[in-house]
């Protein structure tokens, strides 16, 4: 049976996404080193993709992300080129760098404004690093990520409180602002 298409906002300004993704078999695979790498990766990809982060929590066996996708028509060609270079040409020798051609603007605008591409990229990059770092292979994440559309401010605030209190409920800290991840 084919899986259902993911629900997405027609207009990205309509609301926010709450994304949850669990580690394989809900194992506690993320220590401080892994959380730090995930955080660094999240910050980098949030600069590349058309994403406006609201909040997040990185736990030992799952992550919560709340963000809004920026409409692709609000990103200038110059900003698109900057994002492209950050993604493809950072840490690449000058003679091997890729160039964003004029005909490719629409394709990259579509890719960098797609919530599925953003999360897929985040999870794949983390998985490759994690498996290489721990000399293992196989899945790191369980199935597809879960996403909920938060279409109004009330839903957004309630979900942000839930996500922020995750570390408190787990007993990691006494108040949310004490938790780095």
UniProtKB/TrEMBL annotation:
Organism: candidate division CSSED10-310 bacterium
Position of the signal peptide: none
Domain of life (superkingdom): Bacteria
Record's protein name: Transposase
Pfam families reported for this sequence: Y1_Tnp
Coiled-coil annotated spans: none
Span of domain Transposase IS200-like: 12-166
